[in-house]
Amino acid sequence: MATVSVADALVHYDRTGDGPALVLVHGTGSGGAAINWGQIAPVFAGNHTVITPDLSGADRTTDDGAPLTVEGLAAQVIAVIEDSGTGPVDLLGFSMGATVAATAAALRPDLVRRLILVAGWAHTESDEYLRNLFTLWQRLGRTDSEAFGRLVTMTGFSRGFLNAIGREQVEQLIPNMPASPGTLRHVDYDLQLDIRALLPRIQAETLVIGCVQDATVPVENSRALHAAIADSSYAEIDAGHVALFEKPEEFAKLVDEFTR
Questions:
Q1: Does the residue 175 lie in any domain?
Q2: Which member of 1, 42, 184, 250 has the lowest number of beta carbons within 10 Å of its beta carbon?
Q3: Which residue pairs from 217-221 have beta carbons closer than 8 angstroms and sit at least 24 positions apart in sequence?
Q4: Does the model's pTM come out above 0.90?
Q5: What are the residues whose beta carbons fall under 8 Å from the beta carbon of 43, sequence distance 6 or more?
Q6: How many whole angstroms from its chain centre is CA 246?
Q7: Cα four-point dihedral sign 235, 84, 204, 189
């Protein structure tokens, strides 16, 4: 584990594997990289130097507690790339992390060779589905932690996947994204996001991956990202929001083929 100071934050990141650098930027949740990349990072480490930063709001990274901004979180990713000495890198962002990765690529094209955006979106305020879902997360997170966990699990995975793994494993998933202060900071960030003006500035070769059964960030948002990023490629996985967990082999194959 390594750390790098960025503004008022001390950002923690892990590094494993060997080969061209692949930086994985996590989604909403105080568990940060551990929640998103636990089972998939070792797969990538066979062919890549895998770097997994914990953004502000995640458990290991500390800061002044101020509201999170996309520019501030992108600065943390940029600092990790520079501190690790691995740039230019292949940069992959999942969900909230896709918004951060896209911003980092737009602001520092010299550091990003290829960009992969998974289950991401460009703006919240004028999307009534996203605005209402994140508002519900916000309110449940402050009043009923168990209900928050159940809603996140229900929207994070497809119905077929939840039924296939069964009740015992579903119940084990519910605590994976607790309604901690860090998680709620991420949800506040999700509510105010708008990166539409930055998308035309992306120069890296880009792959956008949408999740067909996504009930958190509906697949139309990924299709819109693809349309907004010049010369980007697009692929879909028939899974819920956390496709990297539901269909890890298909997800890893898409990423591996694109980065090679």
A1: no
A2: 1
A3: 217/95, 217/119, 217/120, 217/121, 217/130, 217/241, 218/129, 221/120, 221/121, 221/122, 221/127, 221/130
A4: yes
A5: 248, 252
A6: 15
A7: positive
Half-sphere exposure of 132 (CA within 13 A, CB side): 4
The tally of domains found in the chain comes to 1
pLDDT 10s digit of each residue in the chain, 260 long? 899 999 999 999 999 999 999 999 999 998 777 778 988 999 999 999 999 999 999 999 999 999 999 999 999 999 999 999 988 999 999 999 999 999 999 999 999 999 999 999 999 999 999 999 999 999 999 999 999 999 999 999 999 999 999 999 999 999 988 999 999 999 999 999 999 999 999 999 999 999 999 999 999 999 999 999 999 999 999 999 999 999 999 999 999 999 98
**Domain of 219, in residue numbers:** 2-124+195-259
Helices and strands in the chain: count of H runs, count of E runs:
11, 8
Residue 43 in tokens: 């797969």
Residue 163 resides in a domain = no
CATH number of the domain within which 223 lies:
3.40.50.1820
Strand boundaries in 167-212, DSSP class E: 205-211
Q: How many CB atoms lie within 10 A of CB 165?
A: 14
Q: Is residue 250 part of a domain?
A: yes
- Alpha-carbon distance of 257 to 260, in angstroms, equals 5
CA–CA gap between residue 222 and residue 61 (Å, rounded): 29
